[in-house]
Amino acid sequence: MTLPGHPWARGRVVAPLALALALFAAGPAYAIDEQSELSVQSQKSLGDYLTDVESDSDPNRLYAARVLRGELRRVLRVEANAPAGSLASLDARAILIELETRLPRACRAGLQKLNSVAPCADILALLGVKEAVPEIRQVLTVEKRRWVRRHLESALAKLEG
Would 20 be classed as within a structural domain? Predict the structure, then answer.
């Protein structure tokens, strides 16, 4: 592309292009920075999920139970595979102690809520809460959903076996 022969014409074309490029390049960086600040502010702690699993909000309770089930599986895997005394093992043990103290009561209550039966049964089986066997059996007698029944039967097999 050739610019008109006058020296001032080049400045008229290049300056707006440079300004547009500078504005375009700065825009996405600002948006990404703003999004990362929002995502950091919206992250929940383990205590928040433990509180949510006891809440009356069905979606919050279900999501919290699923998150805690995944966290419990991760912590048990780390504790089983990490070298004894390592930082990962100690961290996993601390999280497991927190979950073992607060989660069984919440999940035993969650067995009575419609949407948190399956993850709560899985959590109780992972924690080895044998006191929950009668409650799981009682829920199994009235549960109609086949996929939930599989979770309940699996939990019973782990707790009784």
Answer: no
Q: How many CA atoms lie within 13 A of 143 on its CB side?
A: 24
For a pLDDT cut of 90, what percent of the chain falls above it?
Answer: 57
* pLDDT recorded at residue 17: 61
Q: What angle do CA 33, 34, 35 make, to 5 degrees?
A: 90
Count structural domains, the chain.
1
The whole model's pTM is what?
A: 0.71
> What pLDDT is stored for residue 6 in this prediction?
56
Asked, for residue 155, whether it belongs to a domain, the answer is yes
Query: Which residues form the domain of 78?
Result: 46-160
Q: What are the CA-CA distances from residue 19 to residues 4, 22, 27 (Å)?
A: 21, 5, 12
55 in any annotated domain = yes
Rg of the chain over Cα atoms, rounded to whole angstroms, equals: 27
